[in-house]
Amino acid sequence: MSEPQLSLVFIGLGSNLEHPVTQIKKARVAINRLERVQEVAFSSLYQSSPMGDKDQPDYINAVMAVNTNLKPIDLLRRLQQIENQQGRVREGERWTARTLDLDILLYGDQHIDIPDLLIPHYGIADRTFVLYPLYEIAPKLDIPGFGHISDLIAKIPFDGLEKMTT
Length: 166
Ligand code: ROI
What we know:
By secondary structure, the protein is an alpha+beta fold. Helices cover about 25% and strands about 30% of the residues. The chain contains 4 helices and 10 strands.
């Protein structure tokens, strides 16, 4: 049987616990070690104050582009394993601090709505800390159902987001 075709996939990375910059860099290495996943691009790191509960540390975020022929659900399970390896605790955790959050933002031009997985990611169009790093590595992107990334960027000020130099 032939392998499924390669898709270009964008992954959002976020951390605000246990040395967030190190968490993001470790996650990049771990994603690169996955079979059938190759890095295409990696954005700068961005620092921002938390969206949601304000009583938690600032976040570090980045976006990574990879080529993969893993099925979306298989990629999701592998990313969850990496989150768990990096000490993520999954209890009553919505909107609270985390060592590592890996979200599949886009999977080619596919629209996916299955349990555990909604793609494009629901926050893609209005989260500054997702949109700006995504724009940095894919300024010509068309986001299925949302439109061209430059139009989305134009609606969201680069507010409270700090591009890091290291
Ligand atoms: N806030 C910021 N700035 N960055 C995140 O990655 C992030 N992730 C989250 C919530 C708690 C919504 N807030 C965030 O899950």
